[in-house]
Amino acid sequence: MGTVSQFIITIMALPLVEAFGGGKQGWAVYGALIGILTTAAFWICAWGGKKYDVCDMDKERVPMNMAKDLKLLIKNKPMLMLMIAFGTDVLANATYSAVNMYYFKYVLNRVDLVPKVASAILFAGIILLPLLPALSRLFGKKRLYWFGSLFSIIPLVVMWLKPTAPVTILMSMMAVFGFISRIPSNLGWAMLPECSDYGEWKFGQRADGLMSSSLTFINKFGMAIGGFIASFLLGLVGFVANQEQTPQVLNMIVFLRFGMPVLGYIASLISMAFYEITNEKYAEIRTELDERGKG
């Protein structure tokens, strides 16, 4: 449902900006509106989950030990590999998001294509999501994540080599990318419980909150650094908004839009090669943990 709402917002972004007066004023009002809606949505979610967020007040609380928790995280090799794979994907995709508008405005001179291409990417992703559980059972999460990263590279390389390709090719490649790239971007969260079970199986300790917050942190960190990298590299080649760009700037925009995600997926391929938990391995882990529980 998050993807569906993202799909709607993407389609409505530019029309809303124009409706609010266009330019700086339009974007400012649009940003404020999204901020208000997001805040309201978070409050509604918190209100709806409040009755489920309970704790046993009589249970003895174990004090937090940051050093001990970090040591447990560092020892969990599958979790570290997942964080690297997930984080590099997020970082690389954050850079392309940061320059997406620049690509259409300065490289293609077709700002009108922004909502159309974004819609193709998101709609293809929506089609993939219901198929993900079945694909995970068929191929295994590790293998599916690896191949999802591998095949996400292909449409990006095509557009990197031919950034001014005809609209039909652009739309087709971005739809394929939207479909395939949803595999690793969503599968990472589904692999998180495996890493938590691995930690309990290997070290006798569960750390669900630590694992979840670590993946959330690497997600936010990658988004922030990706945006910084895009701004920094564009500044190095002399980018100035709202004027004709030099070939160096145009090449940098194309690299950030298509080349950086390729590098991110390559990093994912390498880290996933060292991810130990296959379907067979996880079945063994779960069986042993269940036996310990009965004991």
From TrEMBL:
GO molecular function list: symporter activity
GO biological process: carbohydrate transport
Family annotation (PANTHER family): MAJOR FACILITATOR SUPERFAMILY (MFS) PROFILE DOMAIN-CONTAINING PROTEIN, MAJOR FACILITATOR SUPERFAMILY DOMAIN-CONTAINING PROTEIN
Listed SUPFAM superfamilies: MFS general substrate transporter
Name of a matching Pfam family: MFS_2
Organism domain of life: Bacteria
Keyword Transmembrane helix found: yes
One GO term describing the cellular component: plasma membrane
Keywords: Membrane, Transmembrane, Transmembrane helix
TM helices/strands, residue ranges: 29-49, 80-101, 113-132, 144-161, 221-241, 253-275
Protein name, UniProt field: Uncharacterized protein
